[in-house]
From TrEMBL:
It comes from the Bacteria. InterPro entries: Glyas_Bleomycin-R_OHBP_Dase, Glyoxalase_6, VOC_core. The lineage of its organism: Bacteria, Pseudomonadati, Pseudomonadota, Alphaproteobacteria, Hyphomicrobiales. It comes from Pyruvatibacter mobilis. PROSITE patterns: VOC (PS51819). Residues 5-119 form the VOC domain. It holds the Pfam family Glyoxalase_6. This is Glyoxalase.
Length: 120
């Protein structure tokens, strides 16, 4: 058996957070929203997909944000993403601990940790 690909990352959010997710993942990170399958749509949440990048936001009844575990998005223009986050009032935490990359961390609207990085 061989794992051939990571299909998607599921992140949790509280009930009713779809609009905040759309603003952060859809507008700030420019990930297009795709329809959830009918049976899964009944559970709430929303999905964002672009090529092989798939972030599925699911409603968790007793929601607690992931403050350590996180997805890392590699970008082509980290300065533009950083400026976009700051303009939206999102706190940016710079980090230089990963050799060969510029990177920073932000929290999505629900407190989930998100890493943004670009190779040097």
């Amino acid at each position: 058996m061989t794992i051939t690909q990571l299909h998607h990352v599921q992140l949790a959010m509280p009930a009713g957070g779809e609009e905040a997710a759309r603003l952060f993942y859809g507008q700030l990170l420019s990930l297009p929203e795709v329809p959830k399958p009918r049976e899964l749509a009944k559970r709430g949440g929303c999905w964002f997909e672009q090529g092989d990048i798939r972030i599925h936001m699911g409603v968790e009844a007793e929601f607690r944000p992931a403050r350590k575990a996180h997805p890392a998005f590699q970008v082509s223009d980290i300065d533009a993403v950083r400026a976009c986050m700051l303009a939206a009032g999102i706190e940016v935490k710079d980090d230089d601990a990963l050799e060969g990359f510029r990177r920073f961390f932000v929290a999505d609207p629900f407190g989930n940790r998100i890493e943004i990085l670009q190779p040097l």
